[in-house]
Amino acid sequence: MTTALLPPRAHWHDSFLLWIASASQTLPLALTATLVGVMECVLNVWQLIMQRDLSAQTTQRRQLWIDQAKAASAGQTRVAIVTGGNSGLGYETAKALVEAGFTTVIGKGSKRPESFAKVAKGSASKGNEAIEKIEAQTGIKGKLVLVPLDLSSLESVKNFTREFKALGYPQLDVLVNNAGMMDIPFGLTKEGYEMQFGVNHLGHFVLTLELLPMLKKSTQGRIIVLSSGAHYSSDNIRYESLQSSKGYSRLGHYSYSKLANLLFVKALDRRLRRAAQSDSSIKITVNANHPGACFTELFKHNPLMNVLMGVARVVCRSPLAGAMSSIYLTLAPGLENVSGEYFFDQIPRTVNPIAMDEKAQEQLWAKSVEFTGMDFTL
């Protein structure tokens, strides 16, 4: 892809995030997480100043990938799953997949803590509304399927995979682990783990492993995991703090979950590469991406962002702009051998050094197996 089509890259932004990663060893977690958030908003404003036609370029790139994917899969049945596809980044990703010819299954979001019961209650209706809206906007009907999914319950995750397999699709081509929670009051998943870590990582960990046999049947399966620049704000994951409110930090524990996403991608990529060495039919890639600071429902639990609604809309990206790396990783050609990377604005980036530590990756994997009872198998 010509770099002229990409959003302007700020190397000062990349350098600052790596500085935060090194400073996270001494600075408070809440402070480093806040610094990352501020820097992401500064980048958004800078990009708008540097590239006045940023929105038009975004639309052009999106259509290019859709057209390329349609041409590459003409006459084929292609199937995708997008968790949290009923709103925000997931909605935009699901919409692009439908336009590219994919039958797209929407996992209709995650359960919120009890204090947000009203929000959770409306998730089913919002899922149906999303399907109706996508069908109206694209003129494409019959390509979207809604299946219940509560990522805070591993039982629900397993029920989702059973229901998906019962639909009778021959394979799964794309899995987008998009759904997430951020900056929420302390709460626990059904299995007793901190809610942000449980939903953002553990739920998707089980979902991915459950669906690997279906991805194996694809001629080129792709797994996309939404991480975040927040992963730079922590130098480790404090596993001992995942079952108690003691020391809970709304943004800090979000950072743990986003670092976990990166560690998971690296560890899974290594396992997939090893499996492919003994079975050449296994062609599955896994990559992470950062959407940038976006104005989505993730902010609904942040009182300050709700007060500063007007300002937030200016300094934060639109859901479409934030979804562009997910759309790129699902649809663009030439990525068949690209795996284990972390993308931002459609470019692989240098991650927090701790995410490259194989011991940290394997510790995350071992803890995830311990917490869920699931392990890698094809």
Provide structural commentary:
By secondary structure, this protein is of the alpha/beta class. It has a single domain, classed as Rossmann fold, CATH 3.40.50.720. 51% of the residues lie in helices and 10% in strands. Strands 3-2-1-4-5-6-7-8 form an eight-stranded mixed beta sheet, with helices on both faces. Strand 5, helix 9 and strand 6 form a beta-alpha-beta unit. About 3% of the residues have low confidence.
Q: What's the SSE blueprint?
A:
Layout: H1 11-23, H2 29-50, H3 54-72, E1 79-83, H4 88-99, E2 103-107, H5 117-121, H6 123-138, E3 144-147, H7 154-166, E4 174-177, H8 195-216, E5 221-226, H9 250-278, E6 284-290, H10 303-307, H11 309-315, H12 319-331, E7 342-344, E8 347-348, H13 358-372
Parallel strand pairs: 1-2, 1-4, 2-3, 4-5, 5-6, 6-7
Antiparallel strand pairs: 7-8
Helix pairs in contact: 1-2, 2-9, 3-12, 4-12, 7-8, 8-9, 9-13
What key attributes describe this structure?
single chain; 378 residues; alpha/beta; Rossmann fold; eight-stranded mixed beta sheet; 51% helix; oxidoreductase; SDR_fam; oxidoreductase activity; NAD(P)-bd_dom_sf
State mean pLDDT (0 to 100 scale). Answer: 91
Could you say what the CATH architecture is? 3-Layer(aba) Sandwich
CATH topology: Rossmann fold
Task: Please identify the structural class as seen in this structure.
Answer: alpha/beta
Gyration radius, rounded: 19 Å
Strand fraction equals 5-15%
Overall, the morphology is globular
Strand order of the largest sheet: 3-2-1-4-5-6-7-8
Quaternary assembly: single chain
- Helix share bin: 40-55%
The low-confidence runs, each spanning 5 or more residues with pLDDT under 50, are 110-122
Calculate the terminal CA-CA distance, rounded to whole Å. Answer: 33 Å
- H/E order of the elements? HHHEHEHHEHEHEHEHHHEEH
Give the tally of structural domains. Answer: 1
CATH class: Alpha Beta
Largest sheet data: 8 strands, mixed
What is the count of β-strands?
8
Number of helices: 13
